Amino acid sequence: ENFFGLLKSEFFYLQEFESVEEFIRELDKYIDYYNNERIKVGLNGLSPVQFKYQLHSIT
């Protein structure tokens, strides 16, 4: 549920889309941002990519 709440507040409510194609393109960008760049409290303030690299550097 957290993802969808953030999706609505950070993406959907802040933009207007000219077409369905534009919506899909921008949604893909947001999902990529969410999965790779957005800082997560549960990951000690790191993005998923930063957290992954930190784990690999420890092992």
List the helices and strands and how they pair.
Blueprint: H1 2-12, H2 20-36, H3 48-58
Organism: termite gut metagenome
Protein name: Integrase catalytic domain-containing protein
GO biological process, one term: DNA integration
What does it look like?
InterPro entries: Integrase_cat-core (IPR001584), RNaseH-like_sf (IPR012337). It comes from termite gut metagenome. Residues 1-56 form the Integrase catalytic domain. There is one protein chain. With 59 residues, the chain is mostly helical. It has one domain (2-58). It contains three helices and no strands. It has helices at 2-12, 20-36, 48-58. The longest helix has 17 residues, at 20-36. The protein is elongated and about 45 Å long.
Concise structural overview:
The protein has 3 helices and no strands. The chain is an all-alpha fold and 59 residues long.
Q: How many helices in DSSP terms? A: 3
- Determine the fraction of residues in helical runs and give it as a percent range: 55-70%
Main beta-sheet strand count, sense and barrel state:
none
Mean pLDDT: 91
Helix-strand pattern: HHH
Please compute the radius of gyration using only Cα atoms. Answer: 14 Å
Residue stretches low in confidence (pLDDT < 50, at least 5 long) are none
**Beta strand count:** 0
Instruction: Give the helix/strand class.
Output: mainly alpha
Number of folding domains? Answer: 1
Distance between the termini: 32 Å
In terms of DSSP E residues, the strand content is: under 5%
How would you describe the shape? elongated
InterPro entries: Integrase_cat-core (IPR001584), RNaseH-like_sf (IPR012337)
Protein name: Integrase catalytic domain-containing protein
Domain Integrase catalytic: 1-56
